Structures are given as structure tokens and as C-alpha cells.
Amino acid sequence: MKYVLVLVVVVVVIYWWRGMRDASLRANAQARSKKERPATLGPTEIVACRVCDVHLPRQEALPGGDGYYCSEAHRKQDEQVHH
Fold it and tell me: How high is the pLDDT of residue 68?
């Protein structure tokens, strides 16, 4: 009978230890995912390429004399047409 009681205590301790370990791992994973998330930057201004009318974020667009462009080739093409 005492072996059964010892076995029950060991099993309870193992389940308790695993539960605490799993909770700790989940908390660490949540903390890591919060660190990896980019900060909210707010709304992004969208502009259109003057040549092909592709819409893209202003930070990724190439500014030119008359507006924004999606690529260097389109900027050069528009400058040749208008100058």
C-alpha cells in the first residue's frame, strides 16, 4: 500500500512540475512574440507612380520633379518625355 501512495505522490509531482514548466514556456513565448512584433507606425501614405499608376507606400517610392515613381526606369522615362 505504501508503494502505491509513493507512486501517486510521484505522479502528482511530475504532473505539477510539467504544468509549471509548460506555463513558463508559454509565458516566455508570449514575451518573445511581443518583442518581435513591429511597433505600430500608424497610417502609411500611398502614392501612385506617374507612369504606370501603381500604388505604393511613399517610403518605397522614388521622388522625382513631378511626382513619385515605382522604379528608376519610370522616373527616367517620365523625365525624357517631359523635358
Answer: 94
Amino acid, res. 70: C
Give CA–CA dist 68/22, Å, rounded.
52
Cβ-based neighbour number of residue 83 at 10 Å? 7
Per residue in 61-74, is it b (16+ CB within 10 Å) or e — as a string? beebeeebbbeeeb
Q: What is the pLDDT of residues 57-70, one digit of tens each?
A: 999 999 988 899 99
Question: How many residues does the structure list for the chain?
Answer: 83
Burial of 10 (0-12, 13-18, 19+ CB in 10 A): exposed
Instruction: Choose the most confident range, by mean pLDDT, from 15-29, 36-50, 68-82.
Output: 68-82
